[in-house]
Every structure is written in structure tokens, then in C-alpha cells.
Amino acid sequence: MEWFNDFWSTYSTLVFTVGVHMLLALSIWLTLSCGLLSLANAAFMGIGAYVSALLTLNAGWAFPTVLLAGGIAPALVALVIGAPVLRLSGVYLAMATLAFGEVVRITVLNLDITGGPEGLNGIPLATEGWHIALLLLLAFYGLARLRRSKVGRAFEAIKEDEIAARLMGINVNRYKLLAFVLGGFIAGIAGALNAHFTFFISPREYGFEPAVDILTMAVLGGTGSLVGPALGAGILTLLPELLRFLHDFRSLVNGAVLVLVVLFLPKGIWEPRRIRAFFRKGGQA
Amino acid sequence: MLEQQLLNALTLGSVYALFALGFTLVFGVLAVINLSHGAVFMVGSYVALALVTQLDAPLWAAMLGAALASGGLGLLVDVLILKPLRVRNAPHLIPMIATIGVAIMVTSSSQGLFGAEIRRFPEETLPAADFMVGAVHVRVLEIAIVAIAFLLMAVLFITLKRTQLGRALRAIAESPKAAYLMGINVEGLFHVTSFVAAALGGIAGVLIGLDFNAITPQMGQPILHKGIAVIILGGMGDIRGALIGGLFLGFAEVISKAYLSSQMGDAVAFGLLFLILLVRPSGLFGRVLERKA
Amino acid sequence: MKLTRTALLLTALFSTVASLPVMAADIKIGVTEALTGGAAQYGVPIRNGFQLAADEINAKGGVNGNKIQLVIEDEQGKKEEGINVFKKLIFQDKVLMIFGPTLSNSMFAAGPVANAAKTVAFGTSNTANGITDIGPYIFRNSVMESDVLPVTVATAVKHYKVKQVAVIYGNDDAFTKSGYDVFKKVLEEQKIPVTTTETYVKGDVDFKAQLTKIKGTNPDAVVCSCLAEEAANIMLQARGLGIKAPFIGGNGFNSPKLFEISKLAGEGTFVGSPWSNANPAPANKNFVAAYQKKYGGEPNQFAAQAYDAMYVAAAALKDVKLSGDLAADREALKNALPKVSIEGATGPFKFRPAKTKDGKPGGWDADQKPFIYQVQGGKFTLYTGK
């Protein structure tokens, strides 16, 4: 157990971060599975982080309620902007959600209650390992159930061919909105968890780069299943740590890995069929 | 006061337009949102800086060198990365993510090579000539940026409208498959477009590096965000749109800073973008440009 | 179980110490700075400053015969990285203390980790309010703007007979924003009317819209809470627009970069700072010469403060009897640091206890008198009051 204590005291934050990133990757998987390329998840995460941190600092709410509020707040925002935004598709939706993210960031930057650019500091440590593990399991279970339900099939139909889905009598708009709002909810919870183990949040963490990072995790891992995004989140979070010895050229490798995966693993890293095929071939040889 | 602000807006808008030209060209022809355009732009600045400081090259030669280096980089990205993705018929999201990887690679290797600190062109590269028109301070460099932005746009526009090459490019923009069947060398033109777009980005990098005196490995990022806003405002893939969108954004930003509050500059830019997308998804001035990947 | 082992270890240690001449060991010190990413432009000179000082100290035989060994980590200017690196240094590399991180934001995130682990975290570039509220293990030698700006403003106002000023600052950066907050308070206290307050955001390179507006309000001086590179551009563009008013700058002005970029556009600017390359004190002359020799470029304030911080730590370590018990040594170092006073590149330096908001025992802030400089001929010259 000694080695574990050493390991845990050094790397617990890293493990927490992996968990939070997995939640974020799942949140964007949800919208992607419905054929929506939304980049609002970083902003939703930010809303969740700020709402929860402010409730902890100013209202002294208990942590579970704080977490819940951190999820509900961005879900409500998603509900409001969803109807007009989701009429857009493809690249336009991506850009509109990106612009929305910037508006959120600039708003937070200019408010007094959020501490402006100085952010909020002194957020007490409340997140524990099991909180993240439990919520991650819940998310996995819920999303796996959802995939196999009527809702999941509707998502799939919309993703494959929106017009056909509409003709089949699927209420496309409502399902899209559902995916968007639920994605916002999960991202918000992830933000609330993150805020309560990093002591500090600032607007910079929820801008353009994190939005793209979240997307990258999901695509890198593969969006064909739930395992893919989680795997991608794990890899992209741990890779920089493993590459520490490269110093200045560390992020160079990060970028190269991204390019190589996109080029040579078109469906992402986690692709059960290919992996099975690989082992079958390996078995024969 | 107002006259000066209008000039400020015109310069800023031209800067945005200059950057957006190559960005929108790639989108129009290749249907790729090339998020490495900011990095390519930065490379142009550094190459010109190196030519001026290390080899004492005159400015025009430095600019040519920057255009060639950036263009070469753009071509390389197209041949090595975008082409295999086209062959595979990857969904449009995939090339965009690949270009993010490229941007990260280029930015971090630049930092490794040139260091993180801010550089500027030596003072004597360009005499800081300025003169007064009424109460308005005008710098020669500003005039040059505005002129070059308009000129490049005009050249591109005429090329696209009046030449065989332009017709071929427009055919590709409509449908690469049909263009191919018409006997157009689609792959070749994709390469040409990538080269030209990146070269334009490099030139923009030099001019903006000269004007704002702030060359850093990260300089491409903020302008990339603005570039995205510009091509959406102007209509994606539309050459005229880059100029119109750039000027529109420039004016919107400057006027809001001047008459509302300077805190509002970016909020206005992106809030406007958001609203315009909701009302007119094809951009303020664009036509609907939809193509199945 | 644990107790007995510690006891055993201690006995073993004491017996060795008693029986052998004192063995020279390496003193491991962690350095956490942003070496890649946007904040690397501060992090890299800071690391250079530490390295330079550590090399000098080691070349002279180290501290009480022990060599200083730096464990340098990159925190990329990101808060999670800051926490990760702090934990790695504290629990895995088992360093005695940590210098850094570069940005106040990272310190807000990583500081509590060090404080909880009872390990000194010593910031050299964190000027935000509330940093030393984190706890008693948090030190900094970066001088807060609230100590510098009142003097700067009063001096400049007297010199130029300023009646009203315009203000410009970066509103998305913790450093420039907190500088602005102090300026605002100081201007209110000294009853100087503000004609207009303008902002910009990080990455902005075009300030003409704001400056045109400032020009229209005819200020006698422009107060500027900006980083050096932005400030240089602001000055250049201000002169390009025909603004003749002098600038009054915050801590961010204090870099040779200001003149590398702005050349003579910044003439007459007033700056207050704990450091300037013009400071003729011998410690500073040595530092500037050594830095130039080793790194081939002009040092800046960040490098100077890092350099001094290493000497502050070395002075404290001189008084610490290293027992080999990490927890005890860390504690001893924490208790020794506040007593240090040195004559460094930034002038005479000592610590003062932080005043925290809620009355809990806080960390230690810098107690240093700022120099007021006026820019003449593209150089910082000490202002003598004429």
C-alpha cells in the first residue's frame, strides 16, 4: 500500500483530471451521436464551474446540491439557446457554438461577481475520487442505456440522414434539443467537479482551445462507441505527462499524434472491429 | 475624431480581410476549415524577420521569401495530410482536426526554434513615415496594408471570374466530382490553392508583423478567431466576402470601442457573429453554399 | 508502524551525523515555471535567473558545503499542470521547497497543495492580491502594485503638474487588471480626475480605436496597466496618432523590451519598480553582466527577482541545519525564510507578514521600497526630483 499512497499523493489530481475529461468527452459524444457538431461544451463546463463555485463560496450549499446546480444551470442555458442554434447544421453550427462560447467567456470576464480576469480563488477542496468515479459510472450506464433505447435509435437515424428521419415521423428538433441539453448538463457537472479540486477557476479555461480539446478527445478515441471518447480523454490527458522529458518540444509530439491518428486511424483509436481483426491476423501469423 | 476612428476601422478591417483571404479561399475550393492558417501566418512573419535581420534582405525580398515559405508549408500540409483524407473521403470534421494538429506542431516548433519572446522588425526596415490629412494622422504603412488588401482581393477576384484557372476553381467549388469528369486536374488545383492561400497568409503575417510590432509564436491564434468570424460574416468561401466581412468586423469593433466601451469590442464581434448566424446562416453577404462531403 | 520506522531512521541518521564528518549532500529545490505556451516569455527568463544564481552559489561551494540541485518542471501556465507539477515535486522528487509558478492563476491553484503539504512555495512573479492569503507556507518576493503605484503616481503628478489622466489597461489578464484596480484606488485617493478608461484584451495588437478616444479627452498623462510589449505598442501607436502626453506605467513596464520595441516613443514615462537594469548597486551590476554573459541577452525584472529569490533561499538555508528528515527540514526552512534580509539585484530586500482578509495566518510578502524611474533617451534613469 505504501507505493499506492506515494502514487496517489503525486498523481491524484492527474487521475481526477482524466475523469473530468472523460465526462467532457462523453458530453460531446452525445451531441455528435445525434449528428451535431457543437463546440459549446467548454462554455457549458465554465457555466457549471462558476455557478457551483459561487454557490459554494457565497451560499455555502452542500456539495451534492452544488454539483446538481452546476449541471442544471448550463442545461437551462442550452435549453434557451438550443431552439434557434440547432437550426444550423455542420460547420455553421460549430461556428455559432464557438461564438456562443466566446460570448460566455467575455461576459464572465466583465462581471464583478465572477472576479473578472482574476477568476475565483480559494474554492475549498470538495471533490473526492469516488465522486468522479461514481458520476462517470452513472454517465456510462445512462448513456449506454440511452443508446439502446428509442431515443438512441432516433439519434442514430438523425445522424445518418436527417431528412429521412423526419419523414419517418421522428421529431428531429426535439431530439436534437435533448442531446444538446443533456450534453450541457454533463459538461456542467464536469466543470463543477473540476472547480472543486483545483482551488481556482478563471475565464481563460473555458475558451476556444478547451472547446477544441474536448472535441479532439472524442474524435481521437473514436465516436463509434462510448469507450472511444473516454479512451481519447485518457490518452490526451496523460500523453503530455508522459512526454515531460521532451521539454520545449512536448506539444510538438501532441500535435503529431493528433495528425497521425487522424491519418491512419480514421475511426479513432477504439474501433472494435479493427482491433478484433488485428488480433485474428496476429493469431494466424 | 470620427475621421480618425474611420481610418482606424479601415486599417483594422483590411488586416482582418488580408488574413481571411487565404482562409476563405481554402474553404471555398477544398471545403476545409483550415485551422492551421494562423500558424502559417505566423511562419510568414518569422521567415521575413529572419531574412531581414540575418541576411539584410530588402523588405520586398523578405516578403517574397515569406510567401514562398508559407506557401510551401501550405502545400506540404495539403500533400501530406489533406490529400490522403480526400482520397479516403473523410467527413469534413476530420481535416479540420488534422489542421489543429498541424497548428500545434508548427507553433511549438517555432517556439523551440525562435524562443517565446516578442520580436519586431528592425526600425529601419520601414521608415515610420506619417502625415496629416486635416486632423487625421495617417501612416504610410496603414495605407499600404489597405491598398495591398484591396489589390490582392481584386487580383484573386478577377482570376476567379475571368481566367480559365478561375473557372476551373469555381467548378471545383461547385462539385469536385463534376469538375474531375470535365477533365479538370482537380488534385493539381487543390495543391495550387493550398499554396496560394498559405502564401497570402504569409504576406499577411509580414504586413501585420510590421504594423503591430508583435511577432510571437502565438500571434496566429487571436487573429484566427477573428478570421473565423470574418469568413462567416462575409459568407464562407466567398472572396469578396472576406473583404466585406473583414471591413464589417473592423468597423463594428472600432465603433463599439469608440462609442460604447472598449470592453465591448470582442463581445460585439462575437455576439454579432452569433446573432447573424441565427438569422442568416449563410453569412451577411454570402450565398448559401452547401456541398455534401 | 510508521512512528517506529521514523524513529529508527532518525536514530540511524543521528548516529551517522555523530560519527562522521558532515557529508555534503545536494539540496533539491523545485522550480516550476511556464516554459512552453504563452506565459513562457516570463517563465523562461525566470528559470534563467534561478539557474544563474544556483550556478553562482554552487561555484562558490554551495550552502554550508551542500550543492543546490534544481529540479525544473514546466507548468505551461495551466492550473492543472501547476498542481500536477507541485505534487510531483513535493511527493515524488521530495524537494525541500518550490519556486514558482509563473502566473498568479497557477499559484492560486497550486499554492494550496504546497501549503497543505507544509512545503514552502516561493513565487517570484505573482503580484495578484490574495496570493499570500493561501497560507503560511506561501512566500513571494514580487512586489505588489499597491506598494509601488502610489509613489509612482504622486511623483509623476508632481513632475508634470498633472490635472487629469486617461487610463488604459488589459482587462482579461489578472496581472494588468489587478494593477488597474490599484491605479484606480490610488487616483481616487490622490483626487486626480480620470477622463476616460479604456481596455484591451490579450493578443490585441491594434489599440488605435482606444487611443483615438483618449486623445479626444486631452489628458495630461496616460496611466497604463499593461505588460511591456503591449505598452510599447500602445506608446508607438499613441505617438502615431499625435498623443503627446507622457505615460505612467505599472510593474509590467519594467523590461528592456519596452525600448527594444518602442524606441523613443516612451520618453518621459514614469515607472516604479523594485528593479531596473539602471540600478547602479554592485549586486545588480554583477547580475546584469553575468546574465548577459550566460544567456546573451538583457535580463528583465522577472529574471532579477528569480535571481534574488534564489539568494534569499540560500541565505535562509545557511541557518537551517539539514537533518535529513524532509518534513522537519521543510518546516525549518519555512521558519528561517522570514528572517532573511539581503542586498540583491533588486536592492535591499526583506519579508513582511501578509495581511489576510479573514485574519488567518497568511504567508509572506515582499517588503521593498520601489525606485522611481523616468525614461530618458530610451533608458530608465533614476528620478532625482528635478
How would you explain this protein's 3D organization?
The complex is a heterotrimer of chains A (285), B (293) and C (386). Chain A is built from twelve helices and two strands. By secondary structure, chain A is mostly helical. A two-stranded antiparallel ribbon of chain A has the order 1-2. In chain A, helix 9 (208-221) packs across helix 10. The termini of chain A are far apart. In chain B, strand 1 (130-133) and strand 2 (136-139) form a beta hairpin. The model of chain B is unreliable at 288-293 (pLDDT under 50). Chain C is of the alpha/beta class and 386 residues long. Chain C has twelve helices and 15 strands. In chain C, the strands form three sheets. Chain C has a seven-stranded mixed beta sheet, sandwiched between helices. Chain C has a five-stranded parallel beta sheet with strand order 2-1-3-4-5, sandwiched between helices. The chains are: A mainly alpha (285), B mainly alpha (293), C alpha/beta (386).
